[in-house]
């Protein structure tokens, strides 16, 4: 159709492209090898099918290679949302590269500090046609069309991608055990934004629930090490079964988060447009009461009965970390500032973990991440690993403000705190699935 963004595969070359001075040489490659990290692309069509299975095969084979088994790997999956795709200069692709670069620097410094080998870093950019027409004004009218496509994609081959990556992690655990290392070093972190959050939840909701229920009496396990959904565009009612199950059990001391949802208070797409559209699409559906009806029409992050935590901007920075406000006046891309943040993340970690061990069982606990405070709102067990977090607009500004420095810095610290631990400190972190 004239005026539409092509329904096509962007990454058609499946040999690894070694990025040198000109990144544009890799604009059609499904594997970009950068200094310090590997960026992989796996694309899905509007029916939820893989555009080319070779994309998936290549990333799995690479991550299962002896080189990666020997080093261990930090895998970060990002599923983008509305108005994005896998094109070389897509803003989400650019920001994801920055994120991977920072994780590599963090891992390099941590390994040096702890006198161990450095794990490799691999990003997987799971892409679909989030932008169907060019131009911001017209594109804004495609919200509900893209939501329907995201629902289809989430019930398609994305589940296979995620489970294949989890099998990679299990293979790494098995390889570590053969070396006498019983706390696997390979990590798997999943991030979904907007309709990407809907895709992730659609792909994994039943997996999450089944695993959670199957392990009653044991520490809870869900998917990989950490699932993060930012401004996700799905109904609160779809989250209800998992939330209800999480309220029925007890958790071990020091339990860290497993599934976290972060939604900005001023996200107009999910806060305003979403319930209006859902009102029209559900007006003939039957619900048993007003609460269920509202849950069926309200995005998960804006449904007050399910909100469990808050993320607030504090004027006075904690002594644990470098004040982000100072760095905002300069470029966060400046190497020295970036390294300062990363070094500070590492130096703050022991104190943060100690604080968590002391506070985590207390109703209403609060943790400081620099200028950002994460607070339990006393609506769930304080150790419940399912977080639905209401976020100040100073941290995430609107629907697409996920790369705002205030949130990017917090998220990096949150991931370090939650999962990027070494064998020597693994008792304080999530360790994913450990299959015998």
TrEMBL record:
InterPro entries: AB_hydrolase_1 (IPR000073), AB_hydrolase_fold (IPR029058). The keyword Hydrolase applies. Keywords: Hydrolase. Residues 76-306 form the AB hydrolase-1 domain. GO terms for molecular function: hydrolase activity. It comes from the Bacteria. This is Alpha/beta fold hydrolase. It comes from Geoanaerobacter pelophilus.
């Amino acid at each position: 159709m004239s005026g539409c963004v092509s329904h096509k595969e962007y990454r058609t070359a499946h040999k690894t492209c070694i990025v040198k001075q000109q990144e544009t040489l890799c604009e059609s490659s499904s594997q970009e090898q950068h200094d310090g990290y590997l960026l992989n692309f796996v694309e899905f069509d509007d029916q939820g099918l893989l555009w080319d299975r070779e994309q998936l095969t290549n990333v799995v084979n690479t991550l299962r290679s002896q080189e990666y088994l020997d080093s261990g790997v930090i895998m970060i999956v990002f599923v983008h949302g509305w108005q994005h795709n896998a094109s070389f200069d897509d803003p989400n692709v650019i920001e994801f590269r920055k994120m991977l670069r920072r994780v590599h620097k963090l891992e390099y410094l941590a390994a040096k500090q702890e006198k161990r080998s450095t794990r490799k870093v691999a990003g997987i950019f799971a892409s679909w046609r989030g932008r169907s027409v060019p131009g911001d004004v017209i594109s804004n009218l495609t919200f509900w069309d893209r939501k329907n496509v995201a629902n289809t994609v989430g019930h398609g081959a994305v589940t296979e991608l995620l489970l294949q990556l989890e099998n990679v992690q299990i293979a790494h655990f098995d390889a570590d055990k053969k070396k006498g290392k019983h706390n696997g070093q390979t990590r798997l972190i999943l991030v979904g934004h907007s309709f990407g959050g809907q895709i992730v939840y659609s792909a994994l909701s039943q997996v999450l629930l089944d695993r959670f229920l199957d392990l009653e009496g044991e520490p809870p396990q869900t998917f990989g090490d950490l699932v993060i959904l930012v401004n996700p565009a799905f109904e609160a009612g779809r989250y209800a079964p998992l939330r209800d199950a999480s309220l029925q059990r007890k958790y071990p001391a020091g339990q860290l988060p497993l599934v976290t949802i972060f939604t900005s208070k001023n996200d107009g797409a999910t806060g305003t447009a979403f319930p209006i559209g859902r009102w029209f699409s559900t007006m003939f559906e039957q619900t048993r009461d007003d609460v269920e009806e509202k849950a069926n029409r309200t995005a998960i992050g804006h449904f007050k009965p399910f909100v469990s935590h808050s993320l607030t901007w504090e004027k006075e920075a904690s002594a644990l970390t470098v004040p982000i406000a100072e760095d905002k006046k300069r470029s966060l891309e400046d190497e020295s500032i970036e390294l300062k943040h990363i070094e500070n993340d590492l130096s703050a970690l022991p104190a943060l973990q100690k604080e968590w061990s002391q506070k985590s069982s207390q109703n209403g606990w609060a943790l400081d991440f620099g200028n950002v405070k994460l607070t339990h709102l006393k609506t769930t067990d304080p150790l419940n690993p399912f977080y639905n977090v209401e976020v100040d607009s100073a941290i995430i500004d609107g629907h697409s403000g996920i790369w705002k420095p205030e949130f990017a810095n917090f998220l990096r610290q949150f991931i370090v705190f939650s999962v990027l631990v070494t064998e020597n400190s693994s008792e304080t972190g999530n360790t994913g699935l450990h299959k015998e």
